[in-house]
């Protein structure tokens, strides 16, 4: 059971909206019900049943603005990028953030109209490219940089191991056995440091 019976939880979904509109809409809805914490879970994630309780305990124990469960993307890369042992940005597959973060960051919280170009991988130097929007995602990277500008503190919950389901091949339409071929991507093997 991932929910503690003593803690009221409201499940909210945002479907059929593009990035970042979906993320901005769900945050606006959650602010209206005055939730204390916002737990972001993307539809392609898998993690243990005790994840939310573990994350709530961690955010309170560490007294930070948000906690992140890392998971692999691409060729087993971490979604968390660190520089000088500080988290610069992170994926939103499984992230718990205090409400106050969204009160400190002005709307829109999530954006994709510009991109981040790494100019020095050894020292993690980057530039914001205001002319080139992100093709896919990027809302999480820009959000992380907004948090860094405000010196907000995020921590990784290392005791939770999560993974991502990945589409390998779409099933054929018009066939009785038209199921998609999906694989589980597990184990982070490469860091974005």
Question: Can you offer a commentary on this structure?
Answer:
- By secondary structure, the chain is an alpha+beta fold.
- The strands form four sheets. The chain has a four-stranded mixed β-sheet with strand order 1-6-3-9. A three-stranded antiparallel β-sheet has the order 2-10-11, with no helix packed on it. Strands 4-5 form a two-stranded antiparallel ribbon.
- The chain is globular, with a radius of gyration of 17 Å.
- The model has no long low-confidence stretch (mean pLDDT 91).
- Helices cover 21% and strands 25% of the residues.
- The longest helix is centred in the N-terminal third of the chain and has 12 residues, at 21-32.
- The chain has helices at residues 21-32, 51-62, 99-104, 139-149; strands at 37-41, 45-46, 66-68, 81-83, 86-89, 94-98, 115-120, 125-129, 154-156, 163-169, 181-185.
- The chain is built from four helices and eleven strands; from the N terminus they run H-E-E-H-E-E-E-E-H-E-E-H-E-E-E.
């Amino acid at each position: 059971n991932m929910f503690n019976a003593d803690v009221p939880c409201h499940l909210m979904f945002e479907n059929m909206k593009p990035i970042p509109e979906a993320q901005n809409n769900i945050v606006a809805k959650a602010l209206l019900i005055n939730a204390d914490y916002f737990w972001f879970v993307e539809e392609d994630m898998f993690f243990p049943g005790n994840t939310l309780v573990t994350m709530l305990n961690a955010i309170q124990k560490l007294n930070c603005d948000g906690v992140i469960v890392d998971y692999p993307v691409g060729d087993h890369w971490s979604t968390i990028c660190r520089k000088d042992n500080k988290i610069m940005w992170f994926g939103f597959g499984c992230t718990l953030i205090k409400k106050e973060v969204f009160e400190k960051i002005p709307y829109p919280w999530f954006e994709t109209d510009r991109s981040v170009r790494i100019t020095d991988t050894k020292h993690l130097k980057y530039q914001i490219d205001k002319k080139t929007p992100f093709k896919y995602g990027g809302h999480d990277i820009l959000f992380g940089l907004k948090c860094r500008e405000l010196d907000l503190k995020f921590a990784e919950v290392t005791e939770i191991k999560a993974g991502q389901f990945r589409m390998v091949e779409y099933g054929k339409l018009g066939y009785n056995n038209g199921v998609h071929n999906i694989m589980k991507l597990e184990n982070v093997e490469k860091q974005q440091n």
